[in-house]
Design a protein that fits this description.
Blueprint lengths: L16 H6 L6 E5 L3 H8 L2 E6 L4 E5 L3 E5 L5 E6 L5 E6 L5 E6 L3 E6 L5 E5 L6 E4 L10 E5 L2 E7 L5 E8 L6 E5 L2 E5 L3 E6 L4 E7 L13 E4 L4 E6 L2 E9 L11 E10 L3 E8 L2 E7 L1 E3 L6 E3 L3 E7 L4 E8 L14 E5 L4 E6 L2 E7 L2 H10 L3 H10 L9 H15 L2 H12 L3 H13 L3 H5 L11 H14 L1 H10 L7 H14 L4 H13 L3 H11 L4 H8 L9 H7 L1 H10 L6 H7 L4 H14 L8 H11 L4 H7 L5 H10 L3 H10 L3 H12 L2 H11 L2 H11 L3 H10 L6 H7 L9 H41 L28 E5 L4 E3 L16 H4 L9 E5 L1
Antiparallel strand pairs: 1-30, 2-3, 3-4, 4-5, 6-7, 7-8, 8-9, 10-11, 11-12, 12-13, 14-15, 15-16, 16-17, 18-19, 19-20, 20-21, 22-23, 23-26, 24-25, 26-27, 28-29, 29-30, 31-32, 31-33
Helix pairs in contact: 3-4, 4-5, 5-6, 9-10, 10-12, 11-12, 12-13, 13-14, 15-16, 16-18, 18-19, 19-21, 20-22, 21-22, 22-23, 23-24, 23-25, 26-28
Length: 853
């Protein structure tokens, strides 16, 4: 793989090409080499360590120099610390103080913006140094160093540094990580955690693989948060959580304890760890076996993102990195540092520093475009249009359209134009001409703008002409769907007319021409074409544009096309087309006239009354089933004329109805009996008329016809005394079903008796109830006071002087009289009547209440 040049580099330059080609999974990280000043430094020197702050970087080298760099790798400051390797650089959280240790035993702690500092030379190499995260604050002036011992330095109130030994005797200390009040360090035996607040050592996490040299495969420590420590050593990873101990369990134990929540093995040797949300970023040192030789050789380091599980892990992504001189590097030569403020990961090797960062939306779109996933790229750009910096939604859309055109998927390409081109009319016209060039104008036609934003009329006319050459149906569809304002209507009308000269009976072109005439408000021309074609839209055209004056002479044509719709339209618009005018137009087509007048009669029996006489003949000719209902409902029909027509055509039922209506019921009954020979209908007719003479005629006619007698016996019981019929039956005449008929007569008679008895009981009960109610009412007292008056003399009913004797008569009708004001008793001695009520209804014993004093 070619070396990566300076500047912005694509992540594929650092990753395994074969893996990228085979995998359709999008990478999680992108990579670029830290260049500018770093390139010059590493050409002459080699990186030994680096520390990352949100604002800057601190790089230590093998020649004892420390460089402060900006995020782009430019040198901002340089410190000559030693002549040998810088082992560790530590920064506090503010980035104002730095701690440095080197292989020759030098330790320096100083402020980048102040003169305060600590300088000490030890008689052994100091591998690590760590400042308190809050070192800037006066009460947290603490740091630790690690060589053969773990030493804690604290500044006392006399501004002097006090040293204390935290741990010794387990070999060289290779790593220290300080987070809040917790210090974690690794030596040859394992990892310890010390609580600086309680001054207690919390735990000891032993090293798993003791066969690995700790100086060649050093321990990697990383705090995920204030209580979670990630430990990587050899091929083992453990996630340790510091927890508070229950007060009841403390006794002589530390107040905190460590629980290992996840522990698992990896395939390769761990060179560095960093947290990424709930996942881990791991830097692996890889050794592989050669195909030609049995010995191992150093392969490219790998940067993996893994999802920790309690006893294993799930690989999310894996990238093999091509760093400079990777063939010469050992596991201890690699380091992984990360920026807590951003998801930036720095892979440090002696001759190269590579920055890995999470891929942003622009990178995601780049990958989708490279994989020709244009639909997803366009969707991603639309969703995140505010966050993308290197891409433009419309340009991605245009690339997608070009891709679809190249594939030959012209319909999809045209459909995307609607979404991508939007309101850019210039782009729209360019695309239309491109589709014309490739012969696909039809594909883009249905997606052209046709609302407030429109192209030039020439564009639409060009497409219409294209359709008119090859596809009449498609042309008709566009005319229906496109507003008439999009193009020059007259020009298209002329073109269609020219085509009709060659094919004058083409219904599609004729219909389209009618629609064009409608757009141009030449409704009479459109109406002629619709009628000629018998087109269903003719009625809608008439209603919509109020063309009733234009159809006065075309009523027959309309009814020939669709009688029902035509009649409904004519009747709904009688104010525009009078009944007389319609009748006049239909005079030569009686069958159509009948349809019109019939519906008119159905709507209103009185509107067309002057045509009822004519309708008799029309019904008789074209619609006999409705003749009888018409005769029944019409009050304006001349009965003599109707009778004449019915008799001429021998319409018995209609003649019977007319005879009965004209009062000739006996003749009507005779026709039923003689011509219809229908005893049931004759009986029904007699019941309707309820005439004793008709019953007598019916009995006389039926007396010598046994079937008729049976019918009469079955139905006559409730209208005529059956005995009259039975007495007149000749002796010996055989009558079918006589027994059943007699049984029915007896049953009907018993039913009548039961009904009468029931009615009598109800009547007696009601009479008694009402009598009792009346009696209770009449027994009630009647109040007489000074407000009541005599109905005869109209004076107060009671005298002003109650001491004098008086006599008052009160009737049950509540009328009151002075006794002397009442006339003498009438014809019934001892019975007195109210003068007022007796004039209306004289009833003896109407009721008298006499009050005397």
């Amino acid at each position: 793989m070619a070396e990566v040049e300076q500047g912005r580099k694509q992540s594929e330059e650092f990753t395994d090409e074969s893996e990228e080609e085979d995998s359709e999974e999008e990478p999680k990280l992108k990579y670029e080499r830290l260049s500018n000043g770093v390139t010059e430094i590493l050409q002459k020197d080699a990186a030994s360590c680096m520390t990352v702050h949100d604002k800057f970087l601190a790089l230590g080298t093998h020649f004892g120099k420390v460089f402060l760099l900006d995020i782009q790798g430019n040198v901002t400051q340089k410190f000559e610390i030693s002549s040998v390797k810088i082992n560790q650089i530590s920064l506090d959280e503010s980035g104002e103080h730095v701690g440095i240790c080197s292989e020759d035993g030098k330790v320096q702690v100083f402020g980048l913006y102040t003169r305060e500092g600590f300088h000490e030379n030890f008689d052994c190499p100091i591998k690590v140094v760590a400042l308190h995260p809050q070192f800037t604050r006066s009460n947290y002036k603490q740091f630790v160093t690690g060589g053969n011992k773990l030493l804690l330095y604290e500044r006392n109130w006399l501004n002097r540094w006090k040293m204390s030994v935290l741990h010794e005797g387990e070999g060289s200390i290779t790593n220290i990580q300080w987070k809040a009040n917790l210090i974690a360090w690794a030596n040859n035996v394992g990892v310890k955690i010390y609580d600086i607040g309680t001054k207690q050592r919390i735990t000891n996490v032993l090293r798993d693989n003791v066969s690995l040299r700790p100086d060649m495969y050093p321990c990697s420590l990383c705090w995920k948060n204030n209580s979670t420590l990630i430990v990587g050593w050899g091929t083992s990873i453990k996630i340790c959580v510091v927890k508070e101990r229950n007060a009841t369990e403390m006794r002589d134990l530390p107040s905190r304890y460590v629980e290992i929540v996840s522990a698992f093995e990896t395939e390769f040797f761990i060179s560095g760890l960093a947290p990424l949300a709930d996942q881990l970023v791991t830097l692996y040192f890889v050794k592989e076996n050669s195909d030609q030789m049995d010995e191992e050789f150093r392969a490219r380091p790998r940067l993996d993102i893994i999802q920790p599980l309690p006893e294993t892990c799930e690989e999310i992504s894996s990238d093999a990195l091509t760093v400079r001189n990777f063939q010469e590097n050992e596991c201890r030569d690699y380091r992984l540092e990360h920026s807590e403020g951003e998801s930036l990961f720095y892979i440090i090797s002696p001759k190269d520093i590579v920055v890995a960062k999470e891929r942003d939306q622009d990178d995601h779109i780049d990958w989708l475009l490279e994989k020709k996933k244009y639909e997803e790229a366009l969707m991603a750009a639309e969703i995140s249009f505010k966050n993308i910096k290197r891409h433009d939604v419309q340009k991605i859309g245009m690339a997608y359209i070009n891709h679809l055109v190249e594939k030959g998927d012209y319909d999809s390409a045209a459909r995307k134009c609607q979404k991508v081109l939007g309101k850019n009319m210039d782009l729209w016209e360019n695309e239309v001409y491109r589709f014309k060039t490739i012969g696909q104008l039809k594909a883009i036609s249905q997606y052209l703008p046709r609302g407030d934003l429109r192209l030039r009329p020439a564009i639409y006319e060009m497409i219409l002409h294209e359709f008119l050459k090859t596809d009449y149906e498609g042309f008709a569809t566009l005319i229906r769907e496109w507003p008439g304002e999009l193009y020059n209507n007259m020009a298209i009308v002329q073109t269609v007319s020219d085509h009709l000269k060659r094919d004058p009976t083409n219904s599609t072109l004729l219909t389209t021409l009618a629609e064009l005439y409608t757009y141009d408000q030449r409704y009479d021309r459109a109406l002629e074409i619709y009628l000629r074609l018998r087109h269903k839209d003719v009625y809608q055209l008439i209603h919509k544009h109020n063309l009733f004056s234009s159809i006065e002479d075309k009523i027959v044509l309309l009814m020939d096309f669709d009688k029902e719709k035509a009649v409904d339209m004519l009747l709904d618009n009688e104010d525009k087309l009078s009944t007389d005018r319609v009748v006049e137009e239909l005079a030569d087509r009686p069958e159509l006239l009948h349809v019109y007048l019939h519906k008119l009669f159905k709507r209103d029996h009185h509107k067309g009354q002057k045509y009822h006489e004519r309708q008799i003949g029309l019904y008789a000719e074209y619609d006999r089933p409705n003749l009888l209902p018409f005769l029944r409902d019409s009050t304006h029909c001349p009965l003599e004329k109707a009778l004449e027509i019915c008799q001429q055509r021998n319409f018995v039922e209609e003649t019977v109805f007319l005879l009965s209506r004209m009062g000739n019921c006996r003749r009507a009954l005779q026709m039923i009996m003689e011509e219809l020979e229908d005893v049931d209908k004759a009986i029904e007719f007699a019941k309707e008329q309820d005439d004793a003479e008709l019953w007598e005629d019916l009995i006389s006619y039926s007396i010598d016809k046994p079937p008729f007698i049976t019918g009469l016996l079955n139905n006559i019981g409730t209208h005529v005394d059956p005995i009259l019929l039975i007495h007149r039956i000749k002796e010996g005449m055989e009558i079918p079903n006589l027994r059943d008929s007699l049984v029915k007569i007896l049953h009907d008679y018993n039913l009548q008796i039961l009904l009468r008895e029931g009615c009598k009981k109800i009547l007696v009960a009601d009479s008694l109830s009402l009598l009792q109610k009346m009696h209770r009412t009449q027994m009630r007292g009647v109040r007489a006071d000074e407000e009541n008056i005599c109905e005869s003399c109209h004076a107060a009913i009671l005298p002003s002087d109650m001491a004098k004797p008086f006599s008052v008569v009160v009737f049950h009708c509540r009328h009151m009289f002075h006794k002397e004001c009442l006339p003498s008793s009438g014809s019934i001695p001892g019975v007195q009547f109210c003068n007022i009520c007796s004039a209306k209804k004289r009833r003896p014993g109407h009721g008298i209440l006499e009050i005397k004093q």
